[in-house]
Amino acid sequence: MIEAVGLVKTYGRDRALDGLTLTAGKGVTGLLGPNGAGKSTLVRVLATVLAPDEGELRLLGRDPAAGRLEIRRRLGYLPQDLGFQRGVTVFEFVDYVAILKEMTHRRSRHDEVRRVIEEVGLTSVGGRRVRTLSGGMRRRLGIAQALLGEPELILLDEPAAGLDPEQRLLFGELVARLGQDRTVVLSTHQTDDVAALCDRVAVLKAGRCVFAGAPRELRALAEGQVWVSAEKAAGTSRRTGDGLYRGLGPTPRNARPADPTLEDGYLLLLTTTTNTTDITEASA
Amino acid sequence: MSTWHMDDGMAAAYAAGELPATPAASVEAHLLACEQCRLLLAPRVPRARLDRVWDDIADTVDAPAPRPVERLLRAAGVREHTARLLGATVSLRLPWLAASAVALFFAALASGETNRWGLLTFLTLAPVVPVAGVAVAFGRDGDPAYEIGLAAPYSTFRLMLMRAAAVVASSSALALAAGLTLPGGGWATAAWLLPSLALTSLTLALSSRYDPRRCAIAVTVPWVAAVVGTNVREPDLAMFGAAGQAGYLAVTVVSVVLLVVRRREFS
User: Fold this and answer.
1) Measured between beta carbons, which residues in chain B are less than 8 angstroms from residue A103?
2) Could you point out which of A265, A275, B2, B185 has its C-alpha 20 to 30 Å from the C-alpha of A9?
3) What crossing angle do the helices spanning B117-135 and B212-231 adopt, rounded to 10°?
4) What ipTM was assigned to the predicted interfaces of this complex?
5) What digits encode the pLDDT tens for the residues B152-169?
6) Under 8 Å CB-to-CB from B147, ≥6 apart: which residues?
7) Which residues pair with A9 in a beta bridge?
8) By the CB < 8 Å criterion, does A95 face chain B?
């Protein structure tokens, strides 16, 4: 579904994507990475909003340079910063996007709008103006428009931002359902989201993919490298909710080894990889 | 309280739509009050028909009410989905149109003053109104759903052109109406038209590379400066004379050609 080899995208002197290689098939693939790693740029390239300066890209079996329109017909996209026109209602907004997706027959378009609004649990607020919705509801509205037309490739940039725990749970169920028969790419800062939702994870750093594989493989990178201690130690230790300090690296005296989490693997990866070296090239 | 009830034959005929109008109306009134007859009728009504009726009701309730501009476009024969796309344009909404109308009519009123700047104010402002309208009609800053539109199959270039055409048409109608109030009327009522087309098409052409709002500023500032500069010492309407109009026509043609050549840049 997604085959990217050596993607380069520059903004002036800044190389947002620096030879990024990634493949993703059916299921949910999480894009993890710190700010500026290139996640949003990659999602925008995959959404055909941006064209890469270099590299090869195939989406849904097509080259975006030649088959952009066909790809867009089978694509759902939630951008990071989704805006809404002033004064529009939930139904009006999704209806507007449905027209942009070439759904011109009024009645069937409205049926589809109702379907996606129901899918994200916003049916009861369909007639409300978007500006009166909470941040979480607006995010769900953004997800709803991405589901229009049952796209085969769904790109969600920070979809869970602003969702409360209950909404995250519902969102997780929705994403899991979507990932059963289509390709879902989910960009996030949250390792929790990846652990809960994703079949595969790609870690981006400085415009490169430095890890691609299953979440358990990312977790396994920190095997034997995680410790907890009652005392703060130098280095990368961080305070946990139970008053202990959790650290990565060789276990110091007065500390005990701990089971790694996905976040441990991710943090270890970010601290140990250079910008130009991929430590793992697991197949996605 | 009802003293009669439907029998099987009547229920079947009503469900099939075969009952004459008067008895059917009577049955409908009766059904509102009689649960026994509703229960008798319910299994005879085709499920698909019920779903269709319910869908119609749901659609009537859910469907967004068209905005005034949308209704106007529909009345003018524009298709429903196109009218919806145009109706979402900021510069085709009533507040923007009202503000444009007020500005243009004040400028026209000012031309009644003996001060020579009066007429110039109108002739300078009339071409700027559509430029501003076009600048906020599309692009990352003007259209909150712009990014989604870029990833959608609907042609961004087509959408931009439709919105620009609608904005120019509405602005021109307002300017023409304001121009009719100019004292003495004459050539000045329409002398802004070609400058308006030139500035708007140039803004669109430049927007294939730069942000539309910046393009609008880049086009408007030299325009205003040129009008002011040529009139500072003494009144000079040469910019709106025959030679000037020919120049605006040339700018319009070149800009449109540039726009067509660079159309792919919009998507």
Assistant:
1) 81
2) A265
3) 170
4) 0.85
5) 999 989 999 999 999 999
6) A49, A77, A79, A81, A82, B140
7) A17
8) yes
